[in-house]
Amino acid sequence: MMLIPAHHFRDIERKPEYLQPEKCIPPPHPRPAGTMWFIRDGCGIACAIVTWFLVLYAEFVVLFVMLIPSRDYVYSVINGLVFNLLAFLALASHCRAMLTDPGAVPKGNATKEFIESLQLKPGQVVYKCPKCCSIKPDRAHHCSVCKRCIRKMDHHCPWVNNCVGENNQKYFVLFTMYIALISLHALIMVGFHFLHCFEEDWTNLLQAYGLTREETAEARISLHEIKQPLKVSSTECSSFSPPTTVILLILLCFEGLLFLIFTSVMFGTQVHSICTDETGIERLQRKKQRRERRGSWKSVKETFGGDFSLNWFNPFSGPCHPKPLSDRDWVRQVSSVSDTENTETTTTTTEEPSEEPKNEDFVEVVDE
């Protein structure tokens, strides 16, 4: 394979015909402003339903198995309010992450008229996505599930049935944080519940025989030797039977531990990506982009919506709205043939690692 000389390469790429714009027809019915964003993916919808079901299951066990039967009303009210508040914020963050446009590039804008309007100069190139016929701005990647190019795409998460991009990354971070918090809170309450109930049931059982713990240890009395078992009420610990209570609590422990680990890891990786101004795709592919990186604090403020305040933790408060894309955002600079080689490699890997470079419309190569 041999690359065409740089000047010839740029002359070809500046021509609108090179990108085959006749194959890119704008959508006949563009989405009106304010339309809700929703991805019709069966797997993503199922994962989102499972997420809500697991949160509601934890809500049921915490309220009806642990808090409501308890006689300590202060303990029940405080923990009930905290857990329900965190659960509400988690589900609200999930809805915002799922129903917010992550930063989709206008579909089908790689038309001849649009390319000509950019008035490309020598050394400037535009990149077309062959899958959605869009001119790709810098740091945009195509998602095969959303079928769109997403600005600053980090990854596609089936649990929120959406991509995580520049417009909804805040909501995804809040979702992982609140899920981790309610998981930790549930595990702590389950631990206290087990200790309290075992302690109380054992004490009540001994008192029913009129014995103290010391007397039981000295006499070595075996409760299994009693022919008529005593009926000791355990309604103070749960409204359900002891086997049902144990099963529900064990399932809650398993769920809480699993999601605590998973969401804590996701929260950490997302915060790291925001602070380093590097998306998950860019980090995995080790792309060495020649661009000016923002400072970590500036990147955090843009993601969470301004200076530090309680709105950072509010899923109903959006991030800083990015500036509308201008003509210069659609154009990139290629200064040499070596840049072209790097562009060919990295862009091919970004779009579809399993595909060959021949599917990329913006790379000009000829057989030797």
TrEMBL record:
The chain crosses the membrane at residues 45-67, 73-92, 171-195, 246-267. Its EC number is 2.3.1.225. The keyword Kinase does not apply. Residues 338-351 have a biased composition (Low complexity). It catalyses: L-cysteinyl-[protein] + hexadecanoyl-CoA = S-hexadecanoyl-L-cysteinyl-[protein] + CoA. Residues 128-286 form the Palmitoyltransferase DHHC domain. Keywords: Acyltransferase, Membrane, Transferase, Transmembrane, Transmembrane helix. Residues 331-368 are annotated as: Disordered. Coiled coil: none annotated. It comes from the Eukaryota. One of its GO terms (molecular function) is protein-cysteine S-palmitoyltransferase activity. It is found in: Membrane. It is a multi-pass membrane protein. The keyword Acyltransferase applies. It is an enzyme of class 2 (transferase). Belongs to the DHHC palmitoyltransferase family. The DHHC domain is required for palmitoyltransferase activity. This is Palmitoyltransferase.
